Amino acid sequence: MIFVDSHAHLDDEAFDEDRDQVIADILSGGNYFFNIASDLKTSYSSYELAKKYDHVYAVVGVHPHEAKDYTAETREALKELLKKDKVMAIGEIGLDYHYDFSPRDVQRKVFIDQIDLAREMDVPIVIHTREAMEETYEILEKYAQDMKVLIHCYTGSIEMARKFLKLGYKLALGGALTFKNAKNTVDVAREVDLKDLLIETDSPYMTPVPFRGKRNDPRKVVLVAEKLAEIKGISTEEVLEATKKNAFEFFGVEND
């Protein structure tokens, strides 16, 4: 059973002691993951991982937390990275009104600028949204209506999910699907067609049950697949095969 984890951060310091070993174990099973950046530094480290390992792909961009540090030079550096082999998309970008580490007006400006860059470079975008779902939707509807968009770690309502799906977007489900209080996410998993879903870990964060509180890694995406299969009444193999196909199609990876 080959899996594709559509969202991980294996360049995170949580993996400094055993990164090569963890990645070797993931790849030994023929599995894949997409390493997602949060700023310029992690855009470079994500690219380095993709360059070093087969079956690893990079997504580069500036997270809303780091929007305050985004400059014209940042945009140019991202543009150059997007020309590299195995750099597949811009992300994770969006709005985060939970922490407000960057001013909201700056977050919005940087979000829109990176959507514009993705359009210029003809690549998909991976969205982070926290406590800003409506405004995220409004910006995407206005600026990214005809683009390939993936809403990472989707935990919103089924009603909002339908609005995103109507625009042709995809939703990624992660460890939250296994949590006790995950009613919204379970509703989405049940009602949204499998063709519109990807699975992810957000490693080293969002570890699924029964490993909550421990470091997450892409191998645990299988637990998300198992829960999704249980909710839909289908086999885990069917979920893994479909979400692999969906991820490859979304990011434009040749199925090897």
Structural summary, described in words:
GO terms for molecular function: DNA nuclease activity; hydrolase activity, acting on ester bonds; metal ion binding. A divalent metal cation 1 binds at residues 7, 9, 92, 202. One of its GO terms (cellular component) is cytosol. The protein is an alpha/beta fold and 256 residues long. It has 9 helices and 8 strands. It has helices spanning 19-28, 40-52, 72-81, 104-121, 133-143, 158-166, 183-191, 221-232, 236-251, and strands at 4-8, 32-36, 56-60, 87-96, 125-130, 149-151, 170-173, 197-199. An 8-stranded parallel β-sheet has the order 1-2-3-4-5-6-7-8. Helix 2 packs parallel to helix 3 (72-81) and helix 8 packs across helix 9. The protein starts with a strand and ends in a 5-residue tail after the last helix.
Main attributes of the structure:
alpha/beta, DNA nuclease activity, 256 residues, 42% helix, eight-stranded parallel beta sheet, metal-binding
**How would a crystallographer describe the biggest sheet?**
8 strands, parallel
The helix count comes to 9
Helix content, binned percent = 40-55%
What topology, given as strand order, has the largest sheet? 1-2-3-4-5-6-7-8
Overall pLDDT metric: 98
Instruction: Give the CA-based shape.
Output: globular
Q: Which structural class should the secondary elements be placed in?
A: alpha/beta
Portion of residues in beta strands equals 15-25%
- Please write the string of helix (H) and strand (E) elements: EHEHEHEHEHEHEHEHH
- How many strands? 8
Ranges with pLDDT <50 over ≥5 residues? none
Cα Rg = 17 Å
Give the N-terminus to C-terminus distance in angstroms: 15 Å
